[in-house]
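for ur thesis appendix - Putative TetR-family transcriptional regulator. copy paste whatever u need, i formatted it the way the template wanted (i think)
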Amino acid sequence: MRDRILDATAKLLVEHGTQASMSKIAGQAEVAIGSLYNHFASKEDLIRAVYERLAEEVTTLLVEGDDPAAAPEVRLERYLDNYIDFIWSDPERAILFEYLSNVPLLPAEDVIVSFRGSSDFIGDILQSLRDAGWLMHGDLFLMGGFIGGAIRNTLKWNRTYGRDLTVADRTQIKTMCLH
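the 3d part is after this line
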């Protein structure tokens, strides 16, 4: 039931923002309003749970197949593949991620805490690349944000134009992020 409520909330947040009422969310989830409040005391708690679930999904998918013993370049390439897969494989999740990134519904500190796992992960990879002498000089935080933003925006427009994502497209996106 909790997942149905979170799914409904995510859908309605993208469609209506925070204007979606708790009763509308309950209706979308096909649960009684009382059941919704049994799981979430307030709309803020519910929105926080949506962020946390999305952040957990992001982190889980980005670290999938990672081998900390592998060369940093190999780890970065895996990360890029995983990020592309994360954004491309589920259009609705990608829209939710984009929406929550652009219209923060929680205080910045809460969003930072929720997404710390994925931020720390790319930060560690970039630091390893720097330590290996492979990475240009610059702020690692900016680089991590640039990579994620570039992938999300490129795939958003690719999808908007109704284009398929080819192997050549994936390779080009990764190459642009690597150089």
